[in-house]
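FORM 12-B: Structure-to-Sequence Request
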C-alpha cells in the first residue's frame, strides 16, 4: 500500500520536463514585458528630470532679464563648475541651475549605462543630458548669454536639453559610449557635431524644448558614416551609431541643416 501511494503522487520525468518547459515559456514571454515596463518607468522619471531642469532654466532666465543660461562661461559648464582635481570633472552641487534645482541627481538620466560615463566625464558627474550650445552658446564672462527668451522664434520646436551621449571607438577598436554635457546635430560643424542625441528609452529619447514641454523623440540617421572621437582610427558606420542608440533630432532629413537647434523658425 505504501509503495502504491508513493507512486500515485510522484512526478514522472516527462511531467517534470513539461512543467519546466512551461515555466521557461512563460519566462520568455513575461521577462521582455517586465523589461519594457521598467524602461517605461525610467523614461517617465527621465521626463520628470528634464521638466525640473526646464523649470530651473526658465527661472534662471527670469532672474537675468530673460537672458538664457550659457552653455559655459569658461569656468563652469551648465552641469557644474570645473574641478581642477578631476575626476569627477565637475564639483558636486554646482552649476548655473544649482540655486533652482538643489539636486545633482536631476542632472542624470536614470537609463544611462556605465560605459556612457567613460572618457569625457565620470558617473560622479551626473551626466546624461546635453544642452543645446548651438542656440545657447559659450560665453567668455560670468554673465549670461545675450540670447533672450524673446529671441526664440519657435520655442516649442527649439531643443533646450535632451538625452545625449557620444559614440566612440577606442584605440583597440572597441566601441563605447561616452557621456557629454551638450547636445548637437550632425550638421553643426562649429561644435564638431560630436554630442549625439541618445534614444535610450525603447528606441526614443526625451527632449526638453525651449517652451518647457518634454517629448519623446525618435533618433534619425542622416549620414552613412560618422567621425570617431574616441582615440581610435577611422569612422563609425551609421549602423554602429544606431545600434549604440545614437542619432539626430531632425525635421527635414538634411544633414547640412540643424533646424531643431537654431533660434530661427525655419520650417
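FORM 12-B RESPONSE
SEQUENCE OUT:
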Amino acid at each position: 500500500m505504501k509503495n502504491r501511494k508513493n507512486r500515485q503522487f510522484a512526478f514522472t520525468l516527462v511531467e517534470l520536463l513539461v512543467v519546466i518547459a512551461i515555466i521557461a515559456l512563460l519566462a520568455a514571454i513575461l521577462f521582455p514585458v517586465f523589461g519594457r515596463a521598467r524602461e517605461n518607468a525610467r523614461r517617465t522619471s527621465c521626463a520628470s528630470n528634464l521638466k525640473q531642469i526646464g523649470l530651473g532654466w526658465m527661472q534662471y532666465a527670469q532672474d537675468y532679464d530673460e537672458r538664457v543660461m550659457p552653455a559655459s562661461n569658461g569656468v563652469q559648464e551648465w552641469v557644474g563648475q570645473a574641478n581642477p582635481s578631476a575626476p569627477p570633472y565637475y564639483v558636486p552641487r554646482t552649476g548655473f541651475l544649482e540655486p533652482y534645482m538643489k539636486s545633482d541627481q536631476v542632472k542624470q538620466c536614470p537609463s544611462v549605462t556605465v560605459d556612457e560615463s567613460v572618457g569625457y566625464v565620470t558617473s560622479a558627474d551626473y551626466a546624461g543630458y546635453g544642452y543645446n550650445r548651438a542656440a545657447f552658446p559659450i560665453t567668455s564672462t560670468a554673465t549670461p548669454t545675450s540670447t533672450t527668451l524673446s529671441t526664440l522664434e519657435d520655442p516649442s520646436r527649439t531643443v533646450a536639453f535632451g538625452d545625449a551621449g557620444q559614440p566612440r571607438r577606442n584605440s583597440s577598436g572597441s566601441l563605447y559610449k561616452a557621456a557629454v554635457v551638450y547636445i548637437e546635430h550632425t550638421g553643426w560643424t562649429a561644435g564638431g557635431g560630436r554630442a549625439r542625441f541618445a534614444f535610450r528609452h525603447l528606441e526614443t529619447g526625451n527632449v526638453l524644448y525651449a517652451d518647457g514641454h518634454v517629448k519623446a523623440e525618435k533618433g534619425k540617421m542622416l549620414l552613412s558614416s560618422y567621425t570617431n572621437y574616441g582615440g581610435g582610427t577611422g569612422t563609425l558606420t551609421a549602423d554602429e551609431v544606431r545600434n549604440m542608440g545614437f542619432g539626430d533630432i531632425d525635421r527635414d532629413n538634411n544633414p547640412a541643416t540643424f533646424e531643431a537647434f537654431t533660434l530661427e523658425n525655419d520650417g
